[in-house]
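dumping this here before i forget
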Amino acid sequence: MIYVDGVLFPDENSSSSLSSSSQGSSLLLDVMTHPVIISASDSFKNLEEQRVTESCSTKDRYVYIFQREYAVVNPALVDFVGMDEATTCVGLVIRNRRSGVTSIAHMDSPKVVDLGIRQMLSLVLEDDSDAELDVHMVGGYEDVDLKKIANGSGDYAKPEGYSFPLCCKLVETLQKRRENFHIQTLFILGHNTKLDAQGNTCPIFNGFLVNTSSGDIVPASFNRSSRCPDELVRRIRVSASFDDPSWRGKLLDTYDTKTDRFIIAPCSWTMRLVEYVWELNQLPDEEILVNCSTSPSAEGPDFIDNERRIWKYLLKYPEWSKTFPKRQPRLFERTANGSWNSVF
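structure:
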């Protein structure tokens, strides 16, 4: 169930209360145009983006997640949790008002929403099945022709691009579940869209940071050293998980809530992926953008470099068992200064 401003949504006057094949699209549009949501989006837009660096991440206890990952954090052990690099993806936050336990996911496809939200809620609702849950979504800009929609020739009932179907699925899934979800931030699609110097649509913000004690959320970006631990292997799992049946429809496990450790669950990759990577690595930069991104004109300046670093690792270690011997996870413990050390 979804609540906006403490009121169950939708009510009998909402277009999304009608039964139709476009119900998910109507529900999303109704929520996005609610005055409280518009006001919250305007406030979020005016916040200064916080830049997280390695030097700043050692002062407090951080947890960072990559694409298709999720983590559930306890405010007694973690001060901040966040993500970035979202263009057509959506960052989802679900926080238990009573306990402060916070779940965060970097959703990249409607196919992982149903099971992914179930994964996210497993510890958020532990011993508190009737909890009131605050929800934030950031990401998923308008990667479709805004002029068509503005002129009335676009149809919200016919999802286009990558962002819109994902946002529809997220809102519809929350609405259908029995838990009480209070939508606080819906900085997605049109709310999170601007034009770049070439006139292309792109996101205003690509990430965020959540203060686990207060529940406050601010726009954020991270540098390479603060996207840790085990950056390259975690990036590789995103591509490898598509061919690994053990991860079908699931978000990737990363972090152990109870012990405050990163436990990078294993996944396997095939020689087909390695061969494909070799071919991609021969391409010029502009073709890499077209072939490897859902939003070529909206990617960050380090996108291509990140892709090539991933491919270099896969070409150096084509056998997944070298990375996950005996299919065991990779373990990282937090040090006294808040950084991470590998545990062998």
